[in-house]
From TrEMBL:
Matches recorded under InterPro entries: CarS
Residues spanning the membrane: 57-87, 134-153
Claim: Ligase is one of the keywords in the record: no
This protein's name: CDP-archaeol synthase
Keyword Transmembrane attributed: yes
Keywords from the named record: Membrane, Transmembrane, Transmembrane helix
Length: 162
């Protein structure tokens, strides 16, 4: 297992999932339009919800692409991590809406696993990743995101402590 690679991938996962939160807090860009355009699913509930915005998606893609280059992993890996994390986040939101969970509600596991596994499995198609590396980066993200979310709440960057 390449521990340095696991650290780099974990860092990119944090960046991919944190960039939308930071963009919401600090950006003046008016791209805060919902990705789903306000569409509703067959059950009458929102497809993803108003908190999943184009601004956040773009922030994640740009941040991970730039940071991956700085880490020596290349733009393609960064873009893949960013896109995969956003796909995982949209999947989580879709499932939570079907379960009638409120927007931005906490769902332990569902909030972390898709946002880590989707980008890592996609990245494994671009570069060799051992199952243990995928597991280690996923675990680091899942546990680390809980602490980081609380810290961002305490610093008044996040509106919710999760």
């Amino acid at each position: 297992m390449d521990a340095v690679l696991v650290i780099k991938l974990s860092l990119l996962l944090f960046i991919a999932n944190g960039a939308p939160v930071l963009a919401k807090r600090f950006s003046r860009f008016s791209g805060a339009r919902p990705v789903d355009g306000g569409a509703r699913f067959f059950d009458g509930r929102p497809l993803f919800g108003a908190s999943k915005t184009w601004r956040g998606l773009l922030a994640s893609l740009v941040a991970t692409t730039l940071c991956a280059q700085a880490l020596g992993l290349g733009a393609a890996i960064g873009a893949t991590i960013g896109a995969g994390a956003m796909v995982g986040d949209l999947f989580s939101s879709f499932v939570k809406r079907r379960l009638a969970r409120p927007v931005s509600s906490r769902a332990l596991g569902l909030d972390q696993l898709p946002e880590a596994l989707a980008p890592l499995l996609a990245t494994a198609r671009l570069m060799p990743l051992a199952p243990l590396e995928i597991f280690a980066a996923t675990a680091a993200f899942c546990f680390g995101s809980l602490a980081l979310s609380r810290l961002m709440f305490d610093l008044r960057v996040r509106e919710q402590p999760f």
